[in-house]
Task: structure prediction
Amino acid sequence: MTLRVLIVDDEPLVRSGIRRVLAAEQGVEIAGEARHGLEALERIRSLKPDLVFLDVQMPELDGIGVVRALERDALPGIVFVTAYDRYAVEAFELHAIDYLLKPFDDDRLRAALARARERLSRPAPDLAARLAELTELLRRDGQPLSRFLVKTGSRSVLVNAADVDWIEAADNYVRLHAGGARHVLRMTMKELEARLDPASFVRVHRSAIVNLARVAHLEPVPSGDQEIVLKSGQRVVLSRRYRESFERRVGPAL
Result:
C-alpha cells in the first residue's frame, strides 16, 4: 500500500528536509506541500492524503486550528512538527500519531514515518494505550540535544553541540558560536536551555550560555561582574545573577 503524504510547514528548509527523507522511502508518495494553515486545509480536503506532517506554528491558521477545522471522517493521520513541547497534551487530545520537536534528525523522522505506517494499518488504540505511547515519545524527545540542524547559505548542515563555544540571544532566535562560525537557530534561549545537557552548558547571562569545556579563565570587570574568557579568546559576561549557579557547577574561585 502506498502512503500518500502532505508536508505542511511555513519554513522552506523544513519542508525540503522532510521531502528529501520521504522521497527516499519506498511506498511513500508525496501528495503535495502547504506553506500555511489555510493552504493546508484546502490541500487536505482536495488531495485527501493518508498522512500529514503538520507544523504547529504557522501564519493564517496554526496546525492545531487546522485539525480542529477538519471533519472527523476526513481527518488523515497527523504527525505534529514544532519547536515547542507545550503543545504535547493538545496534540494527544487531537489523536496525533507522533510529535516531532525541532530540530529533529533523519532517523527521528523515519521513526515517525514507521509509527504512522503501523498506526494507519490498524484500528486506533484505546485511550490508555495512546497516553502511554505519547508519554514515551516525550521522554525520548526530552533527551539533551547532541546536534543542531542549521542553514548555511543554501545548504543545511549539522553542528555538534560539543563544538559550540557559546550561545547568545537574538530576539526570538539564538546564535550559536562554533569554531569561529555563527549559526542562527529558530528557538528562544529559555527553550534551548531546557534542552541542552546541563553537564556541559550553563547560563551565565540572560542573553548568554557557555560550553563549560570551552572556558579558559575568568577576569573581573569594573561593573562588578566577571568576564568568562573562552579558549577561542572570545569574552562573555558572567553576570552577578548567574554567578552562584555557575560556581556551583565549576567550583568557587579561591
